[in-house]
Design brief:
By secondary structure, this protein is an alpha/beta fold. It is globular, with a radius of gyration of 21 Å. It has an 8-stranded mixed beta sheet, with helices on both faces. The chain has a 6-stranded parallel beta sheet with strand order 11-10-9-12-13-14, sandwiched between helices.
C-alpha cells in the first residue's frame, strides 16, 4: 500500500496535558511522518477544573511532538452531575461551530474520533468530515447511552431513548466504527441499520503506552520499594465507577490479617471521599499519592507486587476492558481484578493474576491475601504470562499499522468514488 504521508485530524474532548491514550496515538503517527492536527478542549480531566499550568501559559500547549493542537472553550466538568452534562454539551457545541472555523483551509485525509464519553464529540467530527469530504473513524471506547445509565448521570427512560436516537444517528453516518472490545459488537449493532456493511465495524483494542514496555529498572520518586509489605497499586481515575467503597472495605478487612499496602495514584470525582474515609477509618495500610504524570507510572508499577483494576457490577461495564488493563499486562506485574465480564476473562485467560466478582469486597480481600502469601517465583510467572498475553493480543506496532492501513484504504475509496 502507498507510503504517502497522511493528513489526519484527531477529534477528542481530552488531550495532553491530560493523561490519555490518544496522546500516544498522536505521537506515534507524527513519528511516522504524518501530519496530525488535534481538535480538543481545555485540559480539566479528571480534577474538574482547568489546569493551572494551562491557564498561566496556554501558548505552551499548542504543539505536541509536532502535532498542531486546536482548542475550543468548554465548561469544566466539576464534581457534580449537572456540571458534567454542561461539560459534555459545551465541547460538542464549541467544536461543532468553532472547529470548522478554526480549521478552514485545512485539508485532511481522515478524521479520527477518540470516543470515550461523551459520544457527542463525534458530531463535530462528522460535520468536519462532511465539509472536507473525508472519511470519519470513531474509536468507540464507551457505550452510550448505557454508560450514562450505568454511572447514574441520566436515568429517565425518555431521555435515554433520546440519547439512543442520537447515537444511532452518529453510528449510521460514520465510515468506520472501531470497537475496543468484542463485547461491544452486539450493543453497537442495535443502533445501526440492519443493512450496515459489517466491514464498517472493526475490532480495535487499546494498547499500553510505550513507557510501560521499558525494561530498564528505574527508581520511583513517588514510592519506596518495601519488601516487608505486599504492595497493591491502583492507578487511574478515582470515580464512582471504580467502586472505591468496596476496595476500601477489602483493605480494611486485611488491616490486622497481613502486611498488605494499598496504594492509590490518580484523581477524580471520588478522591475527596477516599481521603476522608482513609482518615476516618484509620487505614494505615492505605497510601494516597494524588495525580502524577504518565511518565512516573512505570517506576511506580515496579514498586508494586500486584496491580488492581475494579469496576462496579453493571452489564455495560462487563463489556468494557479498562485501558489500564493493557498497561498492567505490559508492566509484567500480577493483576488483581474486582471486575466482571471481558476484563475478568482477560485476567483469567492470560494467567496474569486473580479476579473476583465486581463489588465483592470479601472476595478482593481473599485473592489479595492469596497473592500476598504466594511464592515470589509464582508472582514472577504471573507477570511474565501477562506480558506475553499483551504482546500477542495488544501489540501497539500491529495496531498502529492496522489503523494506518484502514486510513489509506478509506482514502483510496474516497478518491475512486
Amino acid at each position: 500500500m502507498s507510503d504517502k504521508k497522511l493528513r489526519i485530524l484527531v477529534v477528542s474532548q481530552y488531550f495532553w496535558p491530560e493523561n490519555m491514550r490518544i496522546n500516544d496515538l498522536v505521537r506515534d503517527f507524527v513519528s511516522k511522518g504524518h501530519v496530525v492536527t488535534v481538535l480538543t478542549g481545555l485540559p480539566n480531566y479528571p480534577e474538574g477544573r482547568i489546569y493551572d499550568e494551562y491557564k498561566s501559559a496556554p501558548e505552551n500547549f499548542t504543539d505536541f511532538f509536532g502535532a498542531n493542537i486546536v482548542r475550543v472553550p468548554l465548561v469544566p466538568r466539576g464534581k457534580r452531575s449537572i456540571s458534567l452534562i454542561f461539560n459534555y454539551l459545551s465541547f460538542f457545541v464549541g467544536a461543532s461551530f468553532l472547529g470548522p472555523l478554526k480549521l478552514r483551509g485545512e485539508k485532511f485525509d481522515a478524521v479520527f474520533v477518540y470516543a470515550v464519553s461523551p459520544i457527542m464529540a463525534a458530531i463535530p467530527a462528522l460535520v468536519i468530515g462532511k465539509l472536507k469530504r473525508v472519511p470519519v473513524f470513531i474509536w468507540v471506547l464507551d457505550l452510550w447511552p448505557e454508560t450514562l445509565r450505568a454511572v447514574g448521570v441520566l436515568k429517565h427512560p425518555k431521555l435515554l431513548a433520546l440519547v439512543g436516537s442520537m447515537v444511532s444517528w452518529i453510528y449510521n453516518r460514520t465510515d468506520y466504527l472501531l470497537l475496543q472490545s468484542h463485547g461491544f459488537f452486539e450493543n453497537v449493532k442495535k443502533y445501526c441499520t440492519k443493512d450496515i456493511d459489517p466491514r464498517r465495524l472493526q475490532y480495535f483494542p487499546s494498547w499500553a503506552e510505550d513507557e510501560f514496555s521499558i525494561s530498564t529498572p528505574v527508581v520511583s520518586e513517588l514510592l519506596a520499594r518495601d519488601e516487608s509489605v505486599f504492595t497493591i497499586v491502583f492507578a487511574g481515575n478515582l470515580g464512582d465507577a471504580q467502586d472505591l467503597p468496596a476496595v476500601l472495605n477489602a483493605a480494611e478487612m486485611l488491616v490486622n490479617e497481613a502486611p498488605v499496602r494499598w496504594v492509590f495514584v490518580g484523581d477524580g470525582r471520588m478522591s475527596g471521599w477516599l481521603s476522608e474515609q482513609v482518615e476516618a477509618r484509620g487505614l494505615r495500610n492505605v497510601v494516597l499519592l494524588g495525580r502524577h504524570p504518565l511518565e512516573a507510572m512505570p517506576a511506580l508499577f515496579a514498586c508494586a507486587d500486584a496491580l488492581l483494576v475494579s469496576l462496579k457490577t453493571n452489564d455495560v461495564f462487563e463489556k468494557t476492558i479498562p485501558g489500564k488493563v493493557q498497561a498492567y499486562l505490559a508492566s509484567g506485574r500480577p493483576l488483581l481484578g474486582m471486575i466482571n465480564g471481558e476484563a475478568a476473562r482477560v485476567i483469567n485467560e492470560s494467567g496474569a493474576g486473580l479476579s473476583c466478582a465486581s463489588g465483592d469486597a470479601a472476595g478482593l480481600a481473599r485473592i489479595a491475601l492469596t497473592l500476598a502469601k504466594a511464592e515470589p517465583q509464582q508472582l514472577k510467572l504471573m507477570g511474565m504470562a501477562g506480558r506475553k498475553y499483551y504482546e500477542t493480543n495488544y501489540s501497539k506496532t500491529v495496531l498502529m499499522n492496522r489503523l494506518e492501513n484502514l486510513f489509506r484504504a478509506a482514502t483510496l475509496r474516497e478518491v475512486t468514488r
